[in-house]
Amino acid sequence: MMATFVAAMTGLSGCYEGLDALESDPEESPGSTEGGADGQGTDEDDVTVPAGVTARRLTRRELRRTLRDLTGAEIDTESLLPGEERVGPFSNNAQALTFPQVFAEGMVAIAKQASAHVVAQLEASGECAGALDDACAQAVLAQWLPRAWRRSVTDEEHERILAVYERGRDNEGPAHGLELALQAVLVSAPFVYRIEHGQPDPAGGWRPTSEEMAVRLSYLVWGTMPDDALMELGRSGALTDPEQILAQAQRMLDDPRAHEALAEFHYQWLGLDALETVDKDLERFTHWDPQMPERMATETRLFLDEVAFSGQIDDLFVGRFTYVDSMLAALYELDLVPSSDFTRVTLPEQGPRAGLLTQGAFLAMNADFSVTAPVRRGAFVRERLLCDELPPPPPTVDDTVPEPSTATTTREQYQEHLTDPSCRACHDLMDPIGLGFEHFDATGKYRQQHNALPIDATGYVQGTSIDFFDGAVALSEALAGEPRPVECLARSFAAYAYGGTGESETDPSVERLVEVALDQRTHRALVLATVTTPRFLGLDKELP
Fold first, then answer.
1. For residues 251 and 196, what is the distance between their CA atoms, to the nearest angstrom?
2. In this predicted model, what pLDDT tens digit does every residue of 481-521 receive, in sequence order?
3. Among residues 342, 360, 344, 361, which one has the least CA distance to residue 352?
4. Among 107, 387, 416, 450, which is most exposed with the fewest C-beta within 10 angstroms?
């Protein structure tokens, strides 16, 4: 459908590299993980890409950032394009990034917005000497096309795009012609996909070209297109050298775009999009404000950014600092001058809060409308921080949340989970963890009692050395002393970086990331280790 769609729009057949190969059923599309197997197809109804070629579609957020850096336009790609199918917590799994008809329609709308923005800027800025004519249009396309396709462009490809311009110019003038040409570029496979043809490696195997490596680096570290410096290195052939690749990754981590890209990983890994639908019982929680979920998301984003770029992985659990505005300061009972701005605050050493697991984002999104949800809080720790796969509940199980009680504590209400043999096998993995957060109500507010009864926040973490803890801070400190959360972070980052599951126990690239995370315990070290793994470099790929 992709080739048919673009050909119909531009009137050109076979205009772009790989288009015919990328044509597939509306519900299917090519894809492969970084350095993984190519997408060879054998059945007539399952055509993907030629042997040795890999293709990975940009996500909606990658497209938004790429369009911003390419055109200067801020386009709401998330409202114009269908959501990605998630594999685990992540939306960038290469095999799941399909190209249905609704996506093609959305890309047409996006291309129209972006091209109109570019032409309006050219006309307003005087870059075309006050007149958008053939010379200006040709100069714009000559500069713009290799940036949009993120690679060198052949004379034939350039001429074909110029033909689109000329047809539009002849109908409605140069501005219209340039808009059509830019639209043709933005709906083409080389823009929407990261296509890698690769090249033979002298040591054997098949690896990305230097230009293709520039693109791999930029989307890993920045989540967007390469800058001019990186593209120039790619064209020079320098990015076949692992030392050059590492040096560029180090440079790129010092750029603000790296903060945005790593924030995207954290956002998906921790499922922070769940905050968008958080709501609480205003009659029961009179202190709650509908704006709190957005404020909580900002707090956690700022906290994670400091941990990632200035701290240690252990700070995720034991960092005695956070970022609050006046609304969150009131929720946390912290002294702060009333302000809508976020301020970094040091948390009391003996206080009830430390790290991610005592922040409102985790506590509120893993609770229900009126009551806490120990099972959900425990499941979050198991699945997101320990990388455990929990079995789904049996279909006959009644998973209705208990009605709020004024006579008992939450622990008493959930006691049946740990006494009924049919429930205990699963709930013993979650409830003893989740009940450790009972000092925090469904909004994340600290409490000493529940229903005028003392709270028992003791628990244990089955399968670890944590056989006892008392309260959320004690649990967080115990997790910081365990290797499994660090291993889980490394495996989760591998899944995100490679565009696949990333959890293989035998993949040497993933195991290398685990070793580095356990040894150096920083996010920076984890990113730098990723760009030197065989899987990222493409050295694990056999000749086609």
1. 24
2. 999 999 999 999 999 999 875 455 678 999 999 999 999 99
3. 360
4. 416
